[in-house]
Specification:
The protein has helices at residues 2-13, 17-39, 54-62, 69-84, 88-94, 98-135, 143-171, 174-194, 206-214, 218-226, 237-260. By secondary structure, the chain is mostly helical. It has one domain (2-260). The chain crosses the membrane at residues 20-39, 59-79, 106-129, 149-170, 175-195, 238-260.
Length: 265
């Protein structure tokens, strides 16, 4: 297993994926938080709580959760690129035990996703503090509360990366796998949120569990205000984390089991 893990790290850093991930993490973290902070949440339409309130800080940081599909895409591309470029055969020849190899991939990309999440969170925190200093605003959240929120966001990024790896291992076709990830987060889950009756299940979907984990319920609250539907129930942060871990476990099992039962072609 150690040999497989070292090999996966070597393969990962021989590509441009870490560089693109670094750029995406900084842009995702600092981008939305910085723009909203400069505009001022209270100046948005409709107005939102300002940065001098805990709610305003939570929204400014929580917006980065809207881009958690990005680490999922990195996980998907990482696994499907080997099938696309037909290097997976050589990889399996180097390490014939597919279960060991796929377990190593999951471990490496879990670390990759966690590092991505930490960079994204640090970028968001840096942007938030910078904007607060420029606008001479005292943040409405303590450093401890902010660190807790950012840590949850980093953990969510790691889980989403594993979800992406699982989708990529199941589908193998890169374009189809990327389409599934984007289609779910941009189309299917928002549709499920507005379907009468079905929207009550939102709390158990990846997006709802993430909202609970990161304490970012802005989307659900906005939907409730603009429609006549009742506000969907939300899980506790711990339960939301457990639901996400459950999805990651399913993705991990799929990522290992599917290639064991199929040919490489």
């Amino acid at each position: 297993m150690n040999h497989a893990i070292r090999g996966e790290f070597t393969r990962l850093f021989s590509t441009r994926l870490p560089l693109w991930a670094l750029i995406a993490a900084v842009a995702s973290g600092a981008g939305l938080t910085g723009v909203l902070g400069l505009i001022g949440p209270e100046n948005a339409s409709p107005p939102m709580p300002g940065l001098d309130t805990p709610e305003g800080v939570g929204i400014a940081v929580g917006l980065t959760g809207l881009l958690l599909f990005v680490p999922a895409l990195f996980g998907t591309v990482a696994i499907t690129s080997e099938y696309r470029h037909r290097t997976i055969g050589t990889t399996f020849l180097a390490i014939p035990r597919r279960g060991t190899l796929l377990g190593a991939k999951l471990f490496v990309y879990s670390i990759f996703g966690l590092v991505y999440g930490l960079l994204m969170s640090l970028s968001s925190a840096t942007a938030l503090w910078s904007v607060a200093a420029v606008r001479d605003v005292a943040l409405g959240a303590s450093a401890t509360d902010l660190a807790t929120l950012l840590t949850r966001m980093a953990a969510a990024a790691a889980i989403y990366t594993v979800l992406g790896v699982g989708i990529g291992a199941l589908v193998r076709n890169q374009l189809v796998a990327v389409g599934i990830v984007l289609g779910y987060f941009y189309f299917l889950e928002p549709v499920l949120m507005i379907l009468p009756g079905v929207h009550t299940l939102y709390q158990f979907l990846p997006g709802g569990a993430t909202a609970a984990l990161t304490d970012f319920t802005f989307l659900a609250d906005t939907l409730t205000q603009e429609t006549s539907m009742s506000e969907p129930a939300m899980l506790s942060p711990l339960t939301g984390a457990l639901v996400l871990v459950f999805y990651a476990a399913i993705a991990s099992v799929a990522a290992v089991a599917a290639p064991l039962r199929r040919d490489l072609a």
